Amino acid sequence: MRVKDIMDAPPNLIRTSDTFEYLIRMLNEVKYRVIFAVDKEDRLVGIITEADIIKVLIPKYITFDEFLISAMDESYLEKKCIENRDLTITEIMTKTVLSVHEDDTVTKAAALMVVNKIHTLPVVKDSKVVGIVHLINLIRHIMNILAKGSV
Question: Which first-to-last residue range defines the signal peptide (predicted)?
Fold first, then answer.
């Protein structure tokens, strides 16, 4: 079976020139919490996850040191949101993106997810995002195999 047979489409896309503020508004309206960044030609160039968003708001020097975390008052988050509202997606996104081609096997997608400890992969065709495959898509595929009685 091929990735195109189990993928969801269309995925959530955002332009690299869009802003942090636009991203947050978009996240409020979309189904998935993973957004793929595309350039002017709609080619996949990055990915934005919830972790990338939090990295924008929490300073790089912060560790899980309780003292440093407790030193941030309630207004800290509000200030950081306003300060960073005009950051571009290019400044926020993770630029290294693993992907699968729509004609790749489901086994390849599963292996990429397990080895890299990720839950979602963009599906591409001609460098453009055409779908998204999640672990749940793979689990449903396994359930279908078991329901048919052939493993």
Answer: none
